[in-house]
């Protein structure tokens, strides 16, 4: 028997699969160590065959079969992802193989057994290890395993193979043990449809369109229970666990150790441990961000995509997959139900999925009134009416989609502007840290004391970011809590705001995620136009979602609440729709606009970026791509090439294909890149392909 093996390597040039003699018991999904040229690689068995074109004397046997394996369906899914997003099979497979490769040493959990006594002779390092362990509690051993072994020998530390699970979620919001509440009428009706779908072999995909606070999570919990009762498993995708630990807590409370949680704060060992629990069937529900769509579960019956409008479902590495699309594919192949949920669904989902509506909040309250504040003629970041409202509200959330102090800095005397040396963008002032930073490449430099061009001492700052807003709010005497990508521990900031009895949570769109603070009575969007100005066909959709989601955060409790939207464009459709809480009207208008302009979901966009040290070769490669695509008759328009701003010391050129038919366009895109990239004339040019760019 021959095993077709795909070696796990990131090299694009190395295209498998390669044939080896199959050891006994090897199946599709087995992991092998195979000799490859002079090296040894880990590979995944992607197929088995009776025949091969490799001559018998050249066929070799793998070095060994690794103890772990990937479910065969996941090998198929990985192959599909690779093709769908113009990547390589090996990169696709890296999404579904056990974390940390197949090195798969068993995980040992270390726990303090007793505190050191007088007689213990310990090195400083050993004392530090013990102190750390006392502070963190039981944790997985990493590279310090040998040191921990020596401490085990002294009777100070216990090591076990079984995890003592300490999920981040329990300390996050304080676990509340719940007996399921009786459902509301709308929840009952939605659940009935979901249960009917779960009983089918190939259920229709569903969209749970429910205003914030309408009890969507409770519906997911019941749906997961039904899937489990039918002997199936469930995947629950959530946007970002650090920001929305409540939903994880609710799943863990309801299902206990049946739940495995995958999130970015897990150590490598913990991640392997959770993967293993899912693979062996010990855990049957997986909750996690986008990568959890690849959870190694058998018999998936339900895939939930919570907050399906959230941009974090798109992966920005290679393959640039969209977890929502992968979820739909996985559900289809497994005969599982895909259940997407949101208060502000994407036009794509609104059109494609059958809709279940939760139009009322569980607590019977109406959504808070949304009012626009016309900022034309106002010089300050906050309108006087906003300041009054903030002073009158005990707890408020203020959203400004721009971090840092001010968004650019220039010289009042000669006009010199401080730009990133690696990218053609302005540097952003971070005053507390005393530096200017590039938000694209991370470049930092010290705040200038004087102009580097003319020596003038007069340096001007323009625009307001969250850091400055925080300062302004503190100046008017409001206790302020900031939440943005510069904050080291977002969870801690949220908890501090939750505990405070008055104050303002100020930050970027992170403040509008699914938090549940019952005592917030005011939401403010500062500069709603920042999102609207974005040169992207999704700008309107994002703006509507942002305002509506913020409205969902305000006025959750008894006291009610309101939302103020500061804008220069009060008549923009997205803002007007948000004021009227008119999701249906907004979505209908947005779909009509997209159909007229042939944007998704009425077309597929594929974006190509060619980058090089110099502008000319980048542009030449993009031009060659455009020619190849046009001459190969790609079914759609080829837009560009156009220069893009320089990023991380690379000059860039961009090309967009707007295609009516997806599959042939993706195939043509992959072929064009393979051909042009292989041409020596374009040596030194890097190519990236993004299907469904965000
Ligand atoms: P959503 O996800 O739609 O924003 P949640 O599921 O977070 O809404 O529900 C809002 C609040 O209502 C939560 O505190 C939840 O525990 C509670 N809740 C949900 N369903 C019910 C119900 N049927 N009866 C009572 N409380 C409920
Ligand atoms: Zn100057
Ligand atoms: Zn930069």
Folded structure, characterized:
This protein is α/β, with parallel strands linked by helices and 694 residues long. The chain has four domains: 2-93, PriA, 3(prime) DNA-binding domain (GIY-YIG endonuclease, 3-Layer(aba) Sandwich), CATH 3.40.1440; 185-358, P-loop containing nucleotide triphosphate hydrolases (Rossmann fold); 370-404 and 465-596, Rossmann fold; 604-691, Alpha-Beta Plaits (2-Layer Sandwich), CATH 3.30.70.600. It is 32% helix and 23% strand. It has 20 helices and 30 strands. It has a seven-stranded parallel sheet with strand order 11-12-10-13-14-9-15, sandwiched between helices. A hairpin with a 6-residue loop joins strand 20 and strand 21. The longest helix is centred in the C-terminal third of the chain and has 17 residues, at 615-631. The two termini are 45 Å apart. The structure holds adenosine-5'-diphosphate and zinc ion (2 copies). One zinc ion binds next to loops.
